[in-house]
Write a structure and sequence with these properties.
With about 425 residues, the protein is an alpha/beta fold. Helix content is about 45%, strand content about 10%. The chain has an eight-stranded parallel beta barrel with strand order 5-6-7-8-10-12-13-14, surrounded by four helices. Strands 1-2 form a two-stranded parallel ribbon. β3 and β4 form a beta hairpin. α3 packs parallel to α5 and α10 packs parallel to α11. Bound molecules: D-xylulose and cobalt (II) ion.
Amino acid sequence: MEYFKGIGKIQFEGNKSKNPMAFKYYEPSKKVMGKTMDKHFKFAVAYWHSFCNLGGDPFGSGTQQYPWLVSVDPIQRAKDKMDAAFEFMNKLGIGYYCFHDYDLIEEADTLKESRKRLDVISDYAIDKMKKNKVKVLWGTANLFSNSRYMNGASTNPDFNVVAFAGAQVKNALDITIKLKGENYVFWGGREGYMSLLNTNMKLERENMARFLHMAKDYARKNGFKGYFFIEPKPMEPSKHQYDFDCATVLGFLREFDLLDDFKLNVEVNHATLASHTFAHELQTAADAGALGSMDANRGDYQNGWDTDQFPMDLYELTEAMLVFLQSGGLKGGGVNFDAKVRRNSTDRVDLFYAHIGGMDAFARAILIAERILKESDYKSIIKSRYKSFNTTNAIKYKQGKMTLTTLSKIALKNGEPGVISGKQELLENIVNNYL
Ligand code: XUL
Ligand code: CO
């Protein structure tokens, strides 16, 4: 069955085109800083938003009527959903997808039965992936929807729930490895607390680390060569999540000796919720050699929740691409559209508009960032701002060959430093001029 009728393969037509079903900026084979766009981005579709989410919100049930979710048989429903997903990815020309275990197929009544279902749908996926040029960017386990996880998964106060989460992650890792998934994600939506009054935070954080070590050891033993990513988010659904932001997660990974295998999956909207810019979070991850992957979307600057809109903010993305291009790219990951069409966008074609727009926005931003880096004074202004660190004394300082006493002697000799402008407005104008 064809689910997206009347839609053909989406092509690049350039920015003069008025065809809403064409890319204006995303040209997969176009080189940016010596690397093609498709290799820079490795765009991925998020299975949960695009093929499972019915558009419900706290005030009303779903609005989407997906033709792939009509069968009464859960196995057939999962197969139909996968047919729709592959048709969509082929038509869009997107090379990757990301999934939670129970996006692929609905959870059954028992763990055993759920595993059987996962085996069936992953066999089906293997077959489809053989016939299509589509790969798994990352897999993950949904450790937050079922009520058993209301107090957390690996951080649950009940050891039986921790064990159950272990079983689920083992299955999700098996499936990810079977489908040659390139990475594996942990997003700890309920790994945190609703109230500190009932929480042993020290034990919960230690348990989370133990759990991650076990998952890593299991996957490595079973041949998984990719990276594990932690996806920071400060809150929602928990009041406080232990993976608050990139800096917090980096501290955690260092504390528990996980940084070799675990990198970060940075999501735009999660940065916003943590009161950071997306660029700030990317920079923090990149500086630690831990920029693994991105979840692309945007928040709403008037609403303080996770709206997961498709990325469209060109200024925000250009700032992000400046960091991205200068950081040398992603460690293993790509750009996953963790975004959903609005609940009142109910035509099947809307999913195409959303992804075309998001891919074009990233493409446009990377092209702008490349020009800023190559043609403008942007880099030289920053270089010049730090030029005093190239002097003999500063080089000794950077090499750790100085003491506080030496610093004091230098200050006494040189006297009051001059006032030097930060040139913020000039830099903002440069970015604006290239947009
Ligand atoms: C939730 C979120 C998740 C993760 C995967 O805010 O971003 O969808 O990306 O569990
Ligand atoms: Co995400």
